[in-house]
User: Fold Cyclase family protein from marine metagenome.
Amino acid sequence: MLLPNLQAMCTRSACGARRRSIDCSSASVQTHRTQSLGDSPVTGNVSKSSKSILVGASIVFCLLWLSPTGTNTHAQSARPISGEAFDTWMREISNWGRWGPDDQLGTLNLITDEKRREAAALVKDGVSISLAHDVETHEAVDNPRPFTMVMGGLDDAGPSVSDQWTVSYHGYAHTHLDALCHFSHQGQLYNGVPDDSITVDGCAKLAITNFKNGLVTRGILIDIPHLRGVDFLEPGSP
Assistant:
């Protein structure tokens, strides 16, 4: 069992098709910050912090991409989806109103106290498995705004040092959890919240801070190279 607030979140929620470009570097309510997942703020100070953060934790849905022989069957059968079909899905495959008109958690409502107790009961060996690797500090096509760190206190006579991190979680280089206010569709966020509720100060509703108590549930760790019978995946592997 994995405890997502210590290791990684196994699912991510999105509630629309149109991506909003939101700069949260100065937002009072961050759309990508969750202390329980081990992420640091977009900019912040931490004393003698670890120099690696969790990366690559999208593990649920991997089974949907792997056939028994390890090939990407989804990519082979992919076909364009019309806008009309997508709009239909948004209406018919929806959790809006399922937990009331004021809900801001979405399917995280399914992680009840009972589910957390069941998850904790699955622990047998108590082994902790890291999903982290070194942070990406070099600019690349998939990492246009790489992680940077500024050390403080090195020239002071005091007994301690500190570091300041700056990292843009958007994209594929760094693990992050999207808030429900990250995507909108036809002017609305999850549960019908208007997208103009998002301002330069952050998300008035559906912000990541709704998950501040942490996310603990059962998770599945999948060894993709082992399933494919190799020691590691070559660059560019699907």
Remarks:
- The first helix runs from residue 62 to 65.
